[in-house]
Amino acid sequence: MQTLTVFCCTFSLAANSLSQSQQKSGAKMGTVTIRWFGHAFFLVSDGIKLAIDPFKNLEGYPNPVVAADVVLVTHDHFDHNKTEVIKGNPQVVRGQGKKSAKGMEFLGVKTFHDSNNGKDRGENTVFVFEMNGIRLAHCGDLGHVLSDQQVKEIGRVDVLMIPVGGFYTIDAKAAWQNVEKIKPKVVIPMHYKQPSMGDGLPIAGVDVYLQGKKNVTKLDKNILTLEKEKLPQETSIYVLNYK
User: Fold this and answer.
1) Are 162 and 187 in contact (CB under 8 A)?
2) What is the mean pLDDT of each run of 10 residues along the chain (243 residues)?
3) Cβ partners under 8 Å of residue 234, min gap 6
4) What does the H/E/C string look like for the chain?
């Protein structure tokens, strides 16, 4: 049976709401703040601000104004690599292997944008990084179920940002297979169809992924604040609202 909770205010696993000054700095002490701007575009911060897969002029989404210290690009497709829109002269990180920027360490795990070893849409990077003791992974446009070796490379994950819309990426079924392999505490679905998008876009909405799932929370804001000691014990899904 699906358990669904709808909040009419910003949700915080740290229990306390962010003050205006804390929102400007990105996070309060001991927490990690995740903002979703739609598609695969996030800003993750614990004081250091990390943008991931920025877009520009993408159907269905407004263009956010974002400043960051570091930008991660999981692959060089137009809807994920618009680093020029990020203010603050950030350092850009791409590719596989161990990387460092602004005092942070990143692991890029080689994956593919399709289920044909990259022959259809090329390579993709799953980025793994840690903030305030919370280990996060962003799957980019992952197009296949991860191998056991890739899961081993990725390692422990507390927060997983994963595409669920299908066609260009994994669909709801494959996304859940990856969740069951990785076993994160928090799942944030991304890269799915919005009501404002045209009927011709061949990807599914998030409700297809949520069907039959338990521990689902839908937020009416694009902000989720996490604290390591207060992460859920069971895998929980948080659906953010980009608006």
Assistant:
1) yes
2) 40 37 50 96 97 93 96 92 96 97 97 94 96 98 98 98 97 98 98 87 95 97 97 98 92
3) 185, 215
4) CCCEEECCCCEECCCCCCCHHHHHHCCCCCEEEEEECCCCCEEEECCCEEEECCCCCCCCCCCCCEECCEEEECCCCCCCCCHHHEECCCEEEECCEEEEECCEEEEEEEEECCCCCCCCCCEEEEEEEEECCEEEEECCCCCCCCCHHHHHHHCCCCEEEEECCCCCCCCHHHHHHHHHHHCCCEEEEECCECCCCCCCCCCCEHHHHHCCCCCEEECCCCEEEEEHHHCCCCCEEEECCCC
Give me the CATH topology for the region 4-239.
Metallo-beta-lactamase; Chain A (3.60.15)
